[in-house]
Amino acid sequence: MAPAPSQSNTDEHWKKTTRLMFIHLGVWFFFGYVIHMFVNQLNAIKIPILGFPLGFYMAAQGSLIVFVVMLFMFARQQDKIDREFGMAEDD
Amino acid sequence: MTTQTTTGSDAFYKQLGRMYGMYTGGFVAFIILLAILEQVGVPNKILGYLFVFFTLAVYAIIGVATRTAQLSEYYVAGRRVPAFYNGMATGADWMSAASFVGMAGTLFLLGYDGIAWVLGWTGGFVLVSILIGPYLRKFGAYTVPDFMAFRFGGNFARFIAVIVLVCCSFTYVTAQIYGTGLIASRFLGMQFEVAVFAGLVGILLCAMLGGMRAVTWTQIAQYIVLIVAYLTPIVILSTKHYGIPIPELTYGTAIAEITAREGQMLTSGLATAATLKPHIQPFINYSPLNFFGIIFCMMVGTASLPHILMRYFTTPSVREARQSVAWSLLFIFLLYFSAPAYAAFSKLEVYTNIIGRDLTQVRPWLFSWGELGLIQICGKNAASIDAIVAACKAIAGHPGVVRLQDFVINTDVIVLSTPEIAGLPYVISGLVAAGGLAAALSTADGLLLAIANALSHDIYYKMLDPNAPTIRRLTVARVLLFFVAVASASLAATKPGDILAMVGWAFSLAMAGNFPALIMGVWWKRTTATGAVAGMIAGFGLCLFYLVCSRYFPGYGVKYFGMTSLLNPLSGAPLVDIAKAMALPNAMEVMPTLAHPMANKVGWFDLNNINCGLLGMPLGFLVIYVVSLMGKEPSKEMQAYVDEIRKPRGRTVLEEKT
């Protein structure tokens, strides 16, 4: 049974939610911006078999794949936090 | 709601998979049928008409069949759209004519730098999910201004939010209707103005009777058409050339070949270092600041555009809203990570089979585009071999083979011509046209609904006549939808010059106006109404000022606001000689055309005006923060409401009477 809602419960839930948000924001920032700042260095590396220069690949596909995967992960992780504090909706 | 309708609609939701499965099968069968018709000699023009009218008819049937007389169905599709299907609808809502037709062309022209748009138009969904979308779903609004009004003290905030919404959505929807006109006129040979209004009828049939509910179910149908249409030609091309039907893997080889060919063209004199822009070299079209600026503005703009945020109001729960964002991005990703493949294959074709060819040996696929003026060789439309030869003879010392600097291609051609490059039958070209139309129509539906809902719900019902009965509210919503649609079609029919740039501007405007207030409203309880309203006005105002001034009043910008010339990203030299341009008699002209030497070429910090959100958004945050701290803390009640928004469990904060 879900614990009764109290102010400390609410605060703790929000603290964890905020932390998760910042983690994902960090990953988003890294793959959205930081990695592309090093495109010239990364382009020196060729992906074997496929032939893409790595810097180009990360912008055209790599980062996008990361975004998709992290969104599915976020949906699960946030739901887990909500359940832990009895704040999730009924299934 | 009565029990009977509940069970009736439960059956409806259970059958969704089967219904859309059958629909997809029917669509594939339809393509095969048309392919057979083509083989027995039915002319291309008829096939094109069949494609467009059949798909339009299906959307209209879905639109009419899902009409509704209930407010919550009209505004938020009854909040019962499953995450997976809402993701598909959002994909269609999101991907416009610009994504479908224009994106690959931009990548063709700009190479690596064009990827800023791919990144910007995908990464924003991360922000939607972690920062805003699910919280707005829990709040339980019908529109984004609803949230602003509740959280920030009433109708003044609502009114500002409606202005932001209308400014960014109206320009955007005009570009979509323009796109439908372009596609219909090119494939059906209709007159552009007629095609615009034909597209309008399609849009209205989908959205008018059923509002959000009808738009949701048609957008899913449109997504299926557009993704099949986008992927089919390129999968076939990849299979033909590389033996693997996954273009996203094989175009790496094409890129390596392009790079090799670029070196070859330089050494053999087919291209000059000044005209050749190496495909994978970064920061030659955009400076790093503008490259990352575009990514940032498009991402944050995604998380601020009302027509996208309101799609997540329709899910059954907060949990499903989050899942739905993930599905949305997956469906969008399918198209966006294929766009660079289109660009690479087309570029390889142009570099190997056009550039360096003897003038008389040019491949014939380009003549039909040359006739329309979309491909030029030696400065003249490449309509036939004779035309090319004559045009190039007129150039002194022309070697008789096509050089890179002789060749000009309109970027819209890249996607549309790929079926012909691959030597595919016309039916595939028709399919691509139907896909482009689906992309433009679905986005236009969502945008028109966002505008009409804001006007009918926020302005009419909440501000003018709070006692209006359901019937009248729905009637007002439909009438407004009709007029907004006609207004934007009329504007589109005049072919305004800035139409495509306006799409980029819409993102920056939405970002500057909405993002700080939405974020602070959810994430900082101390945000006061005065602070938020001041922040919205300041951020939106600065962004709008920068845009309008650098585009339409560049002379004033230079003279009074210290704007300077933007710089060439490669050489760092100014784009315009400001002193010389200011001495021109028309330097202080108001509303100059794009050809004006200073329009769009002046600004602060070498910042392109598409990125005006980079100025407006930080100012918005700062003003909200400072003004909020100066005022009194929001009431305990309001803070409790914010707590409620943050918890998925429980009733929505705002309960609409229906």
Folded structure, characterized:
- With 91 residues, chain A is mainly α.
- Chain A has one domain (7-14, 21-84).
- Chain A has 3 helices and no strands.
- Chain A has helices at residues 7-37, 39-43, 54-84.
- In chain A, helix 1 (7-37) runs antiparallel to helix 3 (54-84).
- The two termini of chain A are 14 Å apart.
- Chain B has 658 residues and is mainly alpha-helical.
- Chain B has 2 domains: 14-345 and 423-523, Sodium/glucose cotransporter (Up-down Bundle); 349-421, no CATH class.
- Helix content of chain B is 70%, strand content 2%.
- Chain B has helices spanning 3-14, 16-39, 44-65, 71-76, 83-94, 97-110, 115-139, 144-151, 155-188, 192-207, 211-242, 247-267, 288-302, 306-309, 318-336, 339-353, 365-371, 385-393, 413-421, 426-464, 470-493, 499-523, 529-552, 554-561, 578-583, 613-630, 636-646, and strands at 375-377, 380-381, 407-409, 564-565, 602-603.
- In chain B, helix 7 (115-139) packs parallel to helix 13 (288-302).
- The longest helix of chain B has 39 residues, at 426-464.
- Chain B is globular and about 80 Å long.
- The model of chain B is unreliable at 1-7 (pLDDT under 50).
- Chains A and B meet through helix 1, helix 2 and helix 3 of A and helix 7, helix 12, helix 13 and helix 15 of B.
